[in-house]
Design brief:
Distance between the termini: 22 Å
CATH superfamily of the largest domain: FAD/NAD(P)-binding domain
Helix content: 25-40%
CATH topology of the largest domain: FAD/NAD(P)-binding domain
Shape: elongated
CATH class of the largest domain: Alpha Beta
Order of helices and strands: EHEEEHEEEEEEEHEHEHEEEEEEHEH
Radius of gyration: 21 Å
Number of helices: 7
Structural class: alpha/beta
Number of domains: 2
Strand content: 25-35%
Number of strands: 20
Length: about 325
């Protein structure tokens, strides 16, 4: 079992910012682990603009934002990057079991930063009744299918929820020639950024239903239609308000959950409501030397804020390592 000064799990914007920050603070032995074949994380499929305005003072696409950090990582020989590598377990002693091409190995980290990002909530988490046909996707998966794989998941789309990914995908489907029948939001207003509400929904004249929810999905082999109803203050369907929308695709965009199964495995105290670490300080956890940053720590609206706070995680890890050496 090898021992490393600093191990960072996740090569997205959070992990890269933390690695660069730690190196700037003097850490000379850094291992950056990424399960995908490229660094960049979710940014690689976010080909729309709107990134970097706060951090770089420029308007960039997701891949352009990621590329600036990737070039900095590649210029630092002290940062070892391990791609196509998957962490399968983590202990409270900061020992990770890592599966990478051709081998299974264990690494003991003196300091560890988890930048594992988040995942999307699913249909089951919002209790939509009905059958289970093909054509039901999370908004992020649909984004990957279109932007990375070059596949169009459907042609007549209804979007459940108004998270930023859902709003952006409404526009993306229209640009690809599909018809977005409606965006259904249970809250009184959109949950996405105002700019996405305006640029993706209003500018494209996509029907937007606030205070509504999908009560049932219909279809055998493929989605055929959804039933929509208005909701009251308790989010219960209002009698007599139900109507149907014919469609072949339903996108779920109802929020994000920090992906923290590994630190839960290690015994980190988590908030059961948010799935985030219980801590009194940004990026810290109940295990000394184990830090969490980016969307794994809390859900951010802007990647610029992710980069800024993740740089703080790199500094925290470097400070911990200095104290570690003086023990």
């Amino acid at each position: 079992m090898r021992e490393r000064d600093l191990v960072i799990v996740g090569g997205g914007p959070a992990g890269m910012a933390a690695a660069l920050s730690a190196h700037e603070q003097g850490v000379q032995d850094i291992l950056l682990i990424e399960r995908d074949q490229y660094l960049g994380g979710i940014l690689n499929q976010c080909i729309h603009t709107g990134f970097g305005l706060n951090y770089f003072k420029e308007i960039l696409t997701g891949p352009e934002y990621a590329e600036r950090f990737i070039k900095k990582i590649q210029a630092v020989p002290q940062i070892e990057v391990s791609l196509c590598s998957f962490v399968v377990s983590l202990t409270d002693e900061k020992v990770i079991t890592l599966l990478r091409p051709g081998c299974l190995e264990q690494i003991k980290a003196r300091a560890l930063i988890m930048a594992t990002g988040c995942r999307e909530k699913t249909r089951e988490m919002v209790h939509i009744a009905g059958t289970r046909p093909a054509g039901i996707f999370s908004a992020g998966l649909a984004q990957k299918l279109i932007n990375i794989e070059g596949l169009l998941p459907g042609k007549r789309v209804v979007i459940v929820g108004s998270g930023d990914i859902g709003l952006i995908m409404a526009r993306r489907f229209v640009l690809e020639g599909a018809e977005v029948k409606a965006v259904i939001e249970i809250q009184p207003q959109s949950r996405g950024l105002v700019r996405n509400q305006v640029q993706c929904i209003e500018d494209f004249e996509i029907p937007f239903y606030c205070n509504h929810k999908i009560v049932r999905i219909y279809g055998n082999k493929r989605v055929e239609k959804v039933s929509v109803a208005k909701v009251d203050a308790e989010f219960n369907a209002v009698a007599g308000s139900q109507f149907d929308i014919e469609c072949d695709t339903v996108l779920i965009s109802v929020g994000l959950i920090p992906e923290n199964e590994l630190i839960e495995m290690a015994g980190v105290e988590l908030d059961a409501r948010t799935n985030t670490p219980k801590s009194g300080q940004l990026n810290s956890t109940s295990i000394p030397g184990l830090f969490v940053c980016g969307n794994a720590y809390k859900i951010y609206d802007l990647v610029d804020a992710v980069s800024k706070d993740s740089e703080a995680a790199g500094r925290q890890a470097a400070e911990y390592l200095i104290n570690y050496e003086h023990r």
